[in-house]
């Protein structure tokens, strides 16, 4: 697969890993059981914003990228977005803790793991040196790509920001 672009169909074989949020496991030190999340199936009939960070708990991701999506959740919902998800190469336990550390409850934002950056690498959107997922944003509307952009400058959040996505919904 090459990089996704507007008009493309979202691939039919995208599976991430994640730890489902539950109230009894909302404490940072509580661990749930990772499960497979079949994004292709779950998102087939929904409007989805998927954004990727190179790593949970890294400065740009934690200070500049994720907070914009948390702040803009109501605006994204007003634009008809059913699911907001963040993905990184980190394992599902780290991604779960990343959500908890940022006080995201329930399924407001899904914190997904792209093991070995498989999805990101398939599009050429993983860092060739570190193997981490790139910093990007994709809007999927009922299986069709409406927006797909990757940041080309390290530490920059412009094309993949919540504001950029909102402007393109």
Structural notes for this entry:
The chain is an alpha/beta fold and 169 residues long. β4, α4 (92-101) and β5 form a beta-alpha-beta unit. The mean pLDDT is 92. The chain is globular. It has helices spanning 39-42, 59-71, 73-78, 92-101, 118-123, 162-167; strands at residues 15-18, 35-38, 47-52, 83-88, 110-113, 136-141, 144-150. The strands form 2 sheets. A 5-stranded mixed beta sheet has the order 5-4-3-6-7. A two-stranded antiparallel sheet has the order 1-2. 27% of the residues lie in helices and 22% in strands.
Concise summary:
This protein is α/β, with parallel strands linked by helices.
- Say which CATH homologous superfamily is assigned: Glutaredoxin
The counted number of beta strands is: 7
The whole-number mean of residue pLDDT values reads: 92
Q: How much strand content do the residues show? A: 15-25%
Number of helices: 6
Give the helix level as a range of percent: 25-40%
Q: Ends: how far apart?
A: 24 Å
Main beta sheet: strand number and arrangement?
A: 5 strands, mixed
Q: What class do helices, strands and sheet pairing give?
A: alpha/beta
Structural domains: how many = 1
What series of H and E elements makes up the topology?
Answer: EEHEHHEHEHEEH
Rg to the nearest angstrom?
14 Å
CATH topology name, in short, is Glutaredoxin
Function: Thiol-specific peroxidase that catalyzes the reduction of hydrogen peroxide and organic hydroperoxides to water and alcohols, respectively. Plays a role in cell protection against oxidative stress by detoxifying peroxides.
InterPro entries: PRX5-like, Redoxin, Thioredoxin-like_sf, Thioredoxin_domain
Organism: Aspergillus sclerotialis
Family: Belongs to the peroxiredoxin family. Prx5 subfamily.
């Amino acid at each position: 697969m090459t990089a996704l672009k507007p008009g493309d169909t979202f691939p039919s074989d995208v599976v991430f890993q994640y730890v489902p949020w539950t109230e009894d496991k909302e404490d940072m030190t509580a661990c749930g059981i990772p499960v497979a999340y079949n994004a292709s199936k779950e998102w087939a009939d929904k409007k989805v914003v998927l954004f990727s960070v190179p790593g949970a708990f890294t400065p740009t991701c934690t200070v500049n990228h994720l907070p914009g999506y948390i702040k803009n959740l109501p605006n994204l919902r007003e634009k008809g977005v059913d699911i907001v998800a963040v993905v990184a190469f980190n394992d599902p336990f780290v991604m779960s803790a990343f959500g908890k550390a940022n006080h995201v409850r329930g399924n407001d934002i899904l914190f997904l793991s792209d093991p070995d950056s498989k999805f990101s690498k398939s599009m050429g959107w993983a860092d060739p040196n570190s193997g981490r997922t790139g910093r990007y944003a994709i809007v999927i509307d009922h299986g069709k790509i409406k927006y797909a952009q990757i940041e080309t400058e390290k530490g920059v959040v412009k094309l993949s920001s919540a504001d950029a996505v909102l402007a393109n919904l």
